[in-house]
Amino acid sequence: MKKYLLTSVAALGLVVAGAASAADLPSRKGPVAAPIYLPPVFTWTGFYVGVNAGYAWGQIDSTTGAFTNNLGNFSDPDGFTGGGQIGYNYQIGQWVLGAEADFQGADLKSTSVNLANSLRASTEVNWFGTVRGRVGYSFDRFLPYVTGGFAYGSVKNKVSNGVFAGSNDNTQYGWTVGAGLEYAFTNNLTAKLEYLYVDLDKESFNVPGGTFTSNVETKFSVVRAGLNYKF
User: Fold this and answer.
1) DSSP summary character for residue 70
2) Is 116 exposed, middle or buried (0-12, 13-18, 19+ CB in 10 A)?
3) CB atoms closer than 10 angstroms to residue 74
4) How large is the C-alpha radius of gyration of the chain?
5) Fewer beta carbons under 10 A from the terminal one: N or C of the chain?
6) 123 pLDDT exceeds 50?
7) What is the pLDDT of residue 121?
8) What is the rounded distance in angstroms from the CA atom of residue 214 to the CA atom of residue 167?
């Protein structure tokens, strides 16, 4: 019995010693992988504000009833535009629906002179704005879109013939349509290139002395670049 007990104790000692040696060996497990960071998926949904600047060129359609052959028509204005915009987008799948309002300072001017009858006509567009809907189809951070809606602007027309002169300075209303391309550099900063066609309805005014009545319609195109900050 004594011999059996000694044998059992010796065997247990070998098992304990082997386990202790195994614990001292280096682990064969690979390094623990760091968790993978997945950035949030970009979305166009949200409010934004921004600024823009560009160039505009126009066409003035007028009638001067007292003159034959429409003598004294206004010439076409062109000049710089710049301003700001505010809007909201909502993305559904790849479709992006939005609304935008902008207000622009403008320096569109033109003057024409008809030496045959000393008739001088000038026009100015000092500011304009639009309220538009937008529909786009996103390719991740690229967003081509079409846009259209309501337009308004300050138009000043003046006509004189050396004896009588008349002018009006009205806010005219009309419509606008256009298209653009917007790109998101970051989740908050986007840049766009946009074209708009603006048509302001006709306005009539009489030259003092009853010389003639003129109906004037102002139409112009705008190409502009802009930056937006998306919240």
Assistant:
1) G
2) exposed
3) 24
4) 37
5) N
6) yes
7) 76
8) 10
DSSP 68: G
With beta carbons less than 8 A apart as the criterion, state whether 171 and 152 touch: yes
CA–CA distance, 146 with 79 (Å, rounded to integer):
24
H or E stretch covering 201: strand 189-206
pTM: 0.76
Rounded CA-CA distance 101/13 in Å is 86
CA distances from 102 to 50, 83, 127, 166 (A): 9, 7, 11, 31
Query: What's the rounded Cα separation, in Å, for the pair 156 and 154?
Result: 7
Phi-psi domain of 46 (left: phi exceeds 0; alpha: psi -120 through 50; beta: other): left
List % helix, strand, coil for the chain (3-state, nearest 5): 10, 65, 25
Q: Residue 111: its pLDDT value, please?
A: 78
Distance of alpha carbon 158 from alpha carbon 110, whole angstroms: 11
- List, for residues 47-98, the tens digit of each pLDDT value: 999 999 999 998 877 665 444 344 456 678 899 999 999 999 999 999 999 9
Percent of the chain residues topping a pLDDT of 70:
68
DSSP class of 105: E
Residue 11's φ and ψ, nearest 5 degrees, are: -65, -40
Question: Over the stretch 160-199, which tens digit does the pLDDT of each residue have?
Answer: 776 666 677 789 999 999 999 999 999 999 999 999 999 9
Q: Yes or no: say if 146 and 135 are a contact pair by the CB < 8 Å rule.
A: yes
Report phi then psi at 69, rounded to 5. Answer: 60, 25
Whose CA is closest to 157, among 218, 116, 105, 114? 218
